[in-house]
């Protein structure tokens, strides 16, 4: 093995070292990433980069991916008998392409994770019920039960009403404060048509059509 490596040209040695080291680090990074490890906090490399900046092209994980593919694509080009300048160009292009793919992958994974995060603004106009009494004129924080993002949640709430909102009062969310407290007002529960009424409507419409 040592003899084989020592007989390689300098550029081949460089690509093999980059490919092997990059592959080892890449494997560790992927394992840590998908098992909950926080790889982007290694040293200060990503201290300013990984700050919820959305689509991140330059990050520790992406750079590891670049050098891994850079090394292996360079080896493939050398084995194919390509010239050194063309090998360097192709390996750099492949590395950059890998960075784009990894940046897109982690971007969409983060978006999927964020999709389950509660956005209080989505509660505006939702109708719910007072769970714990709310003081008038924002004097006391209470709790309301509302459906947000398809899930029934119990959230802190205030009201601008001049009277307290007691437990069981039907409310409507009219606003949300910057710290995530709902601003609610008393309202009526939406009237839902009964099943009998819903079934009667098509029959009535059929009679009208027949009479015409």
Describe it:
A hairpin with a 2-residue loop joins strand 2 and strand 3. A five-stranded mixed barrel has the order 1-2-3-5-4. Helix 3 packs antiparallel against helix 4. The chain is an alpha+beta fold and about 210 residues long. The longest helix is centred in the middle third of the chain and has 31 residues. It has two domains: about 110 residues, no CATH class; about 70 residues, Nucleic acid-binding proteins (OB fold (Dihydrolipoamide Acetyltransferase, E2P), Beta Barrel).
Report the strand count.
5
Structural class: alpha+beta
Spans where pLDDT lies below 50 across 5 or more residues: 39-53
Strand order of the largest sheet: 1-2-3-5-4
Q: Give the SSE string.
A: HHHHEEEEEH
Q: Describe the biggest sheet? A: 5 strands, mixed, barrel
Distance separating the two termini: 95 Å
Q: Proportion of β residues?
A: 15-25%
Rg for CA atoms: 31 Å
Question: Could you report the average pLDDT, rounded to the nearest whole number?
Answer: 79
Number of helices: 5
Shape: rod-shaped
Oligomer classification: single chain
The level of helicity is: 40-55%
Q: Kindly give the count of domains.
A: 2
